[in-house]
Amino acid sequence: MLKVLGRRTSGNVMKPLWVLDELGMDYEQVDIGGPFGGNDEPSYLAKNPMGLVPTLVEDDFVLWESNSITRYLCSKYAMGVLCPEDARERAEAEKWMDWKLTTVIPTMTPIFWGLVRTPPEKRDEQAIAAAIEKSFDVWGILDRHLAQRPYVAGDRFTMGDIPLGPQIHRWMMLVEERPDLPNLHAWYDRLTSRPAFEKNCMIPLQ
């Protein structure tokens, strides 16, 4: 059986869990990291030297890095469904997966950590405000892209949407005064209609 090591409240752990539930696959999820600890123990570091979550264990195969896990699961178990067979469509999906890492995360981290994981008296309000302002431009890029397609890689839901899903949900929950981004909001609404997204991503922010 597939095993996902990592706590459900991690945005990175949400990705493989979402994939597995989309596919209706059996798996075991183990709470590691954050308040559960365990990610600094030798037995865990032997699997994942970064000490981060998630880690995927499949028989004697161990994989870490959440986007790599997402790609692996989609290509092995959902080729032609979540992982496009066409090389150009697949590259389009992977491009937005990488964009999440290089562009979305640097903007969302100050917002999420500042508003969720930092006590009010210790928050850097100026840094949070600057990140929120920057987020309007970042999500605006995706909004313009989605003007011509319902999902990031084209006409159907693919692995390209999955890394962005937890981040757009957090943004929607944390940033109340947002610019008018109709295509982005319509895409988010399409994600929220998916039971696997609701189960794994639309959970209390921690």
What does this structure look like?
By secondary structure, the chain is α+β, with helices and mostly antiparallel strands. It has eight helices and four strands; from the N terminus they run βαβαββαααααα. Strands 2-1-3-4 form a four-stranded mixed beta sheet, with helices on one face. Helix 4 runs antiparallel to helix 5 and helix 5 packs across helix 7. The chain is globular. The two termini are 28 Å apart. The mean pLDDT is 98.
Question: What topology does this entry show?
Answer:
Elements (H helix, E strand, L loop, with lengths): L1 E4 L5 H12 L4 E4 L11 H4 L9 E4 L2 E4 L1 H12 L9 H29 L9 H21 L18 H11 L7 H11 L2 H7 L5
Parallel strand pairs: 1-2
Antiparallel strand pairs: 1-3, 3-4
**How is the main sheet built?**
4 strands, mixed
End-to-end CA span? 28 Å
Percent of residues in helices comes to 40-55%
Helix and strand run: EHEHEEHHHHHH
Widest beta sheet: strand line-up: 2-1-3-4
Number of strands: 4
Q: What fraction strand?
A: 5-15%
Q: Give the mean pLDDT.
A: 98
Poorly predicted parts = none
What is Rg? 17 Å
Overall spatial form: globular
